[in-house]
Amino acid sequence: MTPRELHTALKKKQFAPIYLIYGEEDLLVDECVQAIVEQAVDPSMRGFNLDIMYGSKVDAQDVVTHASSFPMMAERRVVVVKESEKLATTDTARELLAAYIKKPLESTLLVFVAEKPDFRKKPFSDLKKSAELIECKPLWDNEVPGWISERIAKLGKQASPEACRLLQAYVGNSLRNLQSEIDKLFVFVGEKKQIEPEDVAGVVGETKGYTIFELQNAIGSRNISLAIQIVERMLEHGESPQFMIVMLTRFFTILYKLIELRQRRSSEREIAAAVGLSPYFVKQYVEFSENFSKEQIEQSFRALLDADLTL
Predict the structure, then answer these.
(1) Exposure of 241 by Cβ count < 10 A (0-12 exposed, 13-18 middle, 19+ buried)?
(2) What distance in Å separates the CA atoms of residue 228 and residue 235, rounded to the nearest whole number?
(3) Beta strands at 132-135 and 108-114: parallel, antiparallel or unpaired
């Protein structure tokens, strides 16, 4: 079962007597455990019907005793065993857990949590046969922008694809670190509903001391020496050259559209809507577009294509 499938089942009040939640993506692990607790036990009853234990501090007898207890003034209870790899280190302990796993108490949700369970050994070999397994593995690179977009939407805002990719480029693929930066972004943008790359750069990029937008500003101002310095600094900090090409292509695409919009004498609001740009940045981008002819921007596209093919 995937974490998404678990959340769907829990919302339908479909519970299993035993769960094993495992994997290296600790944010997903924590959210799965939290979802089980929230759906299974009323907050007012958690003092009586929720036990959180650590395999490094308790033995198998403690786990079985708590799991075998009936809920108090509630339909079910939850027992969470974290660090379960450190549990059941003796044959007697393993057999004790095996007996409970084979015949669990239906009113208890026993949740084992592990990072790297060894399914060749007890109790994990028993859990593999009898428990509901939820694997929380790290996302692939191409899955992370979608996760960012979904998470931001779930919290009540929208993010452009470029903003999601830029956030990933700065932070990496750790979902916990990404969630931390998303929280900062929400404070930064306030009531604004749409998160753009400029917002990401303003929050995340500044803390790293370099941003793709510093490079865009240098290029837009036609400051060649500064642009070269910024490129060198970004590469030294591990910035992806391919990602830089993507963002610069977006930058020149906006400038290309602005040439025609300037000729129409469009308002700043009309320009912002037409190119998908925050009104706050329109004036600056218009100034940049005045520094390039249409032919020079087309030549920039050819240069970016050459660089992309070379890489």
Answers:
(1) middle
(2) 11
(3) unpaired
